[in-house]
Amino acid sequence: MNSLRFHEPVMVEKVLSYVLGIRMNVFVDCTLGDGGHTLEILRATRDTLVIGIDIDREAVAAARERLTSSGFPGRAVVLREDYRNLPHVLARLGVPRIDAAIFDLGVSSRHLDDPERGFTYKGDAPLDMRMNPDSPKTARDIIMNSSEAELERIIREYGEERFSQKIARAIVERRSVKPIETASDLVEVILKAIPGRFRGGRLHPARRTFQALRIATNDEISKLGNSLQNAFYLLNPAGKLMVISYHSLEDRVVKGLFRELEKTGNARVLTKKPDRPSEAEVARNPRSRSAKMRVIERRDLSW
Ligand SMILES: C[S@@+](CC[C@H](N)C(=O)[O-])C[C@H]1O[C@@H](n2cnc3c(N)ncnc32)[C@H](O)[C@@H]1O
């Protein structure tokens, strides 16, 4: 899989602008992916230790190889871990506090560009979509076993798909006749469910449903608030937590949590409005177009 193009990191200059002025002994990249942000932090600093974690085995293997060959001996620790376990991971490493952390949520190009993993409506792979291959539930399981009401909710909430009812109905009808196994089976069902005049838009008609299934398969929203809060509590004073999200539900979680933390008086939100990629970046890397970055700074430890 290492022949795939590396995922292009989003809003790198912005990320650097928040952290380069602060004391930074330890930086944690909670969504290492191909190591794009980590590599930029390593290049821009001299002594910072970067701990990079990712749930995806292939991403971890590729990032490890890439970082090793980039020549930062002893400065990068790469682990296959779930960011939901961050406090335990750091405790195991003997790292009590950190100076900055980034969560770059959503999907990696590694997932989208590899048709074998079933993330993309462009391929014909089994509908897997798990970022963590050890987790028990695949997208196929959701498609084949959820009730129509649950499918409708997933497609509407996570996909913001206006034809969620029609698509959920069509899935249930089709699976009662024949299992839906592959990405192209699902695309076929979606195309039939969507009214003809809405099939020719700029974005593929199956895009939103695939996004919804990915979010549900990986349970991407439910523990996000907790994970971010845990990371925040690990920061040193003046430490910063940066979150890049690509979905309005994720951004709502981030915004709500940051507001609550600020109310305690011990945190300052540095982005009253989220930072967005520049037009030039979106032109160069269209996958950045929905990115929103919010940043919070810890002020003291008086809890
Ligand atoms: C948008 S990509 C990050 C790309 C990275 N910033 C880069 O520049 O290469 C998001 C990554 O988060 C990882 N991920 C998703 N859920 C995770 C979790 N619960 N714990 C750790 N990593 C997770 C995915 O496997 C994916 O590689």
From TrEMBL:
Keywords: Cytoplasm, Methyltransferase, rRNA processing, S-adenosyl-L-methionine, Transferase. Residues 272-284 have a biased composition (Basic and acidic residues). GO terms for cellular component: cytoplasm. It comes from the Bacteria. Its EC number is 2.1.1.199. Residues 270-291 are annotated as: Disordered. It is found in: Cytoplasm. One of its GO terms (biological process) is rRNA base methylation. S-adenosyl-L-methionine binds at G35, G36, H37, D54, Y83, D104, H111. It catalyses: cytidine(1402) in 16S rRNA + S-adenosyl-L-methionine = N(4)-methylcytidine(1402) in 16S rRNA + S-adenosyl-L-homocysteine + H(+). It holds the Pfam family Methyltransf_5. GO terms for molecular function: rRNA (cytosine-N4-)-methyltransferase activity. Specifically methylates the N4 position of cytidine in position 1402 (C1402) of 16S rRNA. Belongs to the methyltransferase superfamily. RsmH family. This is Ribosomal RNA small subunit methyltransferase H.
